[in-house]
Write a structure and sequence with these properties.
single chain, 74 residues, alpha+beta, 2 domains, three-stranded antiparallel sheet, 1 helix, elongated
Length: 74
């Protein structure tokens, strides 16, 4: 894990395509602004897990209806 220190209004750039800007720091909360190409999904971790689980569940259900077994996991 890379750990960086940034102040309000400072940014980091990921792979020349994603920009993350610290908008505000309030106590123990940090507001971030993220600019990324439309084809890259950006979610909070807890939302990402739900989306990934739903996608995997759907994929496994399709395999079961085809008579195959699903052995994938998140």
């Amino acid at each position: 894990m890379l750990v960086l220190t940034r102040k309000a209004e400072e940014e980091i750039v990921i792979a020349d395509r994603i920009r993350v800007k610290v908008l505000e720091v309030r106590g123990n909360q940090v507001r971030l602004g993220i600019v990324a190409p439309k084809e890259i999904s950006v979610h909070r971790a807890e939302v990402h897990e739900v989306v990934a689980w739903e996608l995997l569940s759907s994929f496994c259900e399709n395999l079961k209806t085809d008579g195959r077994e699903c052995s994938y996991s998140i």
